[in-house]
Specification:
Number of strands: 10
CATH topology of the domain at 1-76 and 191-236: Rossmann fold
InterPro entries: AAA+_ATPase (IPR003593), ABC_transporter-like_ATP-bd (IPR003439), ABC_transporter-like_CS (IPR017871), BCAA_Transport_ATP-bd_LivF (IPR052156), P-loop_NTPase (IPR027417)
CATH architecture of the domain at 1-76 and 191-236: 3-Layer(aba) Sandwich
Pfam family, one: ABC_tran
Number of helices: 11
Radius of gyration: 17 Å
Family: Belongs to the ABC transporter superfamily.
Oligomer: single chain
Order of helices and strands: EEEHEEHEHHHHHEHEHEEHH
Shape: globular
Helix content: 25-40%
Distance between the termini: 39 Å
Organism: Leucobacter luti
GO molecular function: ATP binding; ATP hydrolysis activity; branched-chain amino acid transmembrane transporter activity
Structural class: alpha/beta
Length: about 240
């Protein structure tokens, strides 16, 4: 569903993503893992049209989206859920969700879609009338993901869903993301923790210095002694 070929992107005169090629199959979950500051978030911004691609190409379900504006990419069903919560604090849970269905096609299905989001995140249904600022960190993360699903999503990109959350809350958030994956939604996940990533993703791409240095199944990567020592701190 998503195909990247030699994608290069960055900020100003600085190149961050240095020729990444990878694909995400329809109905699968893939993950980008690796140290912070090595280009994972920049790559998502390039895919979603928030950052100009300097060279290379990006295709979404056969359509070249390399030069499309972000709002056009959203209309195609490719949804980017950035780091952090980024909810509207003075709006209620339900108002935040409704804002996620801002495209014409999504608005037509907003009532149906909000019921689906509440089914995945029952905690949000319980809090539907509360202002977002009164939610816990985990609940705000769920709300941010739920709002993304409201956009008639066909592929969702989730950037660091565990960022800043206590381990017990991370477990709950990942449980809900697992429910999303199990519906057949195509997912591209960014996660620093390789063990978290492999609990969801079929394919894992290890990103270092703006390039993909290894790709494979989670078990394959963890069989590599160098990767275990570098990213898990396990020495033999």
């Amino acid at each position: 569903m998503l195909e990247l070929t030699d994608v290069v992107a960055g900020y100003g005169s600085t190149v961050i993503v240095q020729g990444i090629t990878l694909g995400v199959a329809t109905g699968e979950c893939a993950a980008l893992v690796g140290p912070n500051g090595h280009g994972k978030t920049t790559l998502l911004r390039a895919i979603s049209g928030l950052l100009r691609v300097r060279s290379g190409s990006i295709r979404f379900d056969g359509t070249d989206i390399t030069k499309l504006k972000a709002e056009k990419i959203v209309e195609l069903g490719l949804i980017h859920m950035p780091q952090g919560d980024l909810v509207f604090p003075d709006m209620t849970v339900e108002e935040n969700l409704v804002l996620g269905a801002f495209t014409r096609t999504a608005a037509k299905r907003s009532r149906e879609r909000i019921a689906e989001v509440y089914d995945i995140f029952p905690r949000l249904l319980e809090r539907r009338g509360q202002r977002a600022r009164t939610l816990s960190g985990g609940e705000r993360r769920m709300l941010a993901i739920g709002r993304g699903l409201m956009g008639d999503a066909r592929l969702i990109m989730i950037d660091e869903p565990s960022l800043g959350l206590a381990p017990v809350i991370v477990d709950e958030v990942y449980h809900q993301i697992r429910r999303i994956v199990d519906t057949g939604m195509t997912v591209l996940l960014v996660e620093e923790n390789i063990n978290r990533a492999r609990s969801l993703a079929r394919d894992i791409h290890l990103v270092e210095n703006g390039t993909v240095v290894r790709s494979g199944r989670g078990s394959e990567l963890l069989d590599d002694r160098a990767i275990r020592e570098t990213y898990l701190g396990v020495s033999e």
